[in-house]
Amino acid sequence: MAGSQGDGSAGAGAAKAAPAPADAQLVARALRGEAGAFEAIMRRYNRLLFRCVRGVLGDDAEAQDVVQETYLRAFSTLAGFRGDCALGTWLARIAFHAAIDAQRRRGRTVSLDDESEEGTESDVEPMMNWNVSTAESPDSQAERGEMRVLLTNAIEALPPIYRSVFILRAVEEMSVEETADCLEVSDAVVKTRYLRARTKLRDALGDRLEPRAREAYAFAGSRCDAVVAGVLDELRRQGLVCTDAQERPATCVESESRL
């Protein structure tokens, strides 16, 4: 995720924001034990992972715990990330399995199969534009808040196999291929489940709420900070984070060699 580029309208002396480091750079720095790299990865992908987990779980607090667990699983094996897929996709796949594990630990089962996987997104109209204009009146903003609640409740009512796909496709705007990779299903299954999720939502809400999809399951502020702080504390306890990335303690070297 690169930083925004300047539009050329600023004066020559104006300072430009430094581009955000690439995922590969952050991974390399994290493997050297830099706390800032771990934090940057988490802040970049917190919302994606929370939404992925909420597609399986039905509780915000439980989902937040699973996001934290996801990072600890991922960071303890970070040396095994080869870049064969995007870092976000790799993390989301771990998050999905962590959510399923959480369900099983609590004696709940989540069906990952559907009785029929026929049909594709191409059976209906093309993908719509999910973006929402930010130029809104106070009345429009109030209506938008009400719609967000209605939409979130409707998504919650979807069966987990449809909810997971809808959140990744419509809310996070992942491609079919990325969603299939995260959930470890075929592209055809993703298309079918997404079509059915959209049909169910339209039956419940009508077309007018679809453009609000990206606003569902917000994850920022104190909850985002809590995940970052909790994971960093545990990484420090495990010796995976060094206070000085240039002169690393032996524990950091030893921890990295165990990955």
TrEMBL record:
Gene3D superfamilies referenced in this protein's UniProt entry, alphabetically: 1.10.1740.10, Winged helix-like DNA-binding domain superfamily/Winged helix DNA-binding domain
Domain RNA polymerase sigma factor 70 region 4 type: residue ranges: 150-201
Gene Ontology MF term list: DNA binding; sigma factor activity
Entry annotated with the keyword ATP-binding: no
RNA polymerase sigma-70 region domain sequence ranges: 42-109
Keyword Chloroplast: no
Keyword list, A-Z: DNA-binding, Sigma factor, Transcription, Transcription regulation
GO biological process: DNA-templated transcription initiation
Annotated InterPro entries: RNA_pol_sigma-70-like, RNA_pol_sigma-70_dom, RNA_pol_sigma70_ECF_CS, RNA_pol_sigma70_r2, RNA_pol_sigma70_r4_t2, RNA_pol_sigma_r2, RNA_pol_sigma_r3/r4-like, WH-like_DNA-bd_sf
CDD domains: Sigma70_r4
PANTHER family in UniProt: RNA POLYMERASE ECF-TYPE SIGMA FACTO, RNA POLYMERASE SIGMA FACTOR
Family classification: Belongs to the sigma-70 factor family. ECF subfamily.
Name assigned to this protein: RNA polymerase sigma factor
Organism whose genome encodes this protein: Zeimonas arvi
